[in-house]
Amino acid sequence: MNYRPLGRTGLRVSELCFGTMTFGGEGMFKAIGSTEQAEADRLVGVCIDAGINFFDTANVYSAGRAEQILGKALGARRKDVVVATKVRGRVGAGPNAVGLSRGHIMDAINASLRRLDTDYIDLYQIHGYDALTPLEETLRALDDLVRTGKVRYIGASNLAAWHLMKALGISQRDGLARFETLQAYYSIAGRDLERELVPLMESEQVGLLVWSPLAGGFLSGKFGRDKKGPEGARRASFNFPPVDETRGYAVLDVLADVAREHEVSVARVALAWLLHQRVTTSVIVGARNEAQLRDNLAAPELRLSGDQITRLNTTSALPPEYPGWMITVQARDRLEAISQEKRFAKVT
């Protein structure tokens, strides 16, 4: 297992992170998975034995049961791993049982600590944007959690580029803890992140944690032009994350070709492609069973050739949009100047 820096922090995390959305199987999460304690204990053990030191959960997964199951599965090994959880989602019927207000955050952190049976959260992430709460209030509350030791670092999830940049600006202006990571959807079938967020994260040294790297199962190898997936598969009736099927099936064709060349699964190639992207810090993988997990765990060992990367990039490329194409056109002469300067520097 390889390890990468977690944003600008001094922590290093495994390039695969084990996600626990399948734990518990309550409410809307039953369709995703219903892993109970015994199986969770085994899967977490397989992960740790493979070198994974990074585990992700959320307080809304199965009404908190995912946190509880993960805490028990880690047990005494908790001190050796990095645990991430989230706050924002609705956890009760009341009007204040949701969002990113100071009140909700303070209630949520204490509940998560109890369920995880730990004294601190390594990475506490907001689960999305809250239009009703000023970012200043949210960031001040999160900074207080860092200062009291309940949280070590903070991160965000599902933000637009302007949300993230505004938050980073507030943190710098007011001397508050800043978002060190963004957890976001990214896959070879869904590269929208590259338009605005990737340049921002690279510029500001914000780490990327990838959720749904297989596009909700679309890239699992079970779907195709002539394959609608196994009966009962979530994606067969729920297009989430949404995939442009015209481009998506073209991507699957090339993924299948590369998979045959390496004699591995389509899913493993899709994960390996993400690990070849320099913006990626860690890819969150989940599994309903050990066979799926072990296949995912082999992805870091798969090395794609330059030709294979080019083929995959070409077929999955986003259509150009403004202002991106204009920025590219206007950058040409400046990039040529930079290239000339580098050549001159080598000569001298």
Instruction: Please identify, by name, the CATH architecture of the largest domain.
Output: Alpha-Beta Barrel
Could you estimate the helical fraction of the residues in percent? 40-55%
How is the largest sheet built, in terms of strand order? 3-4-5-6-7-8-9-12
> For the record, what is the CATH homologous superfamily label of the largest domain?
NADP-dependent oxidoreductase domain
- Major sheet: size, sense and barrel closure? 8 strands, parallel, barrel
| Structure summary, number of beta strands | 12
| Whole-number tally of structural domains | 2
Radius of gyration: 21 Å
Low-pLDDT stretches: none
Choose one word for the global shape. globular
Multimer state: single chain
What does this structure look like?
- The protein is an alpha/beta fold and 348 residues long.
- The protein has 2 domains: 3-317, Alpha-Beta Barrel (TIM Barrel); 319-348.
- 44% of the residues lie in helices and 16% in strands.
- The strands form 3 sheets. An 8-stranded parallel β-barrel has the order 3-4-5-6-7-8-9-12, surrounded by 6 helices. The chain has a two-stranded antiparallel ribbon with strand order 1-2.
- The longest helix is centred in the last third of the chain and has 24 residues, at 324-347.
- The radius of gyration is 21 Å and the shape is globular.
- The mean pLDDT is 95.
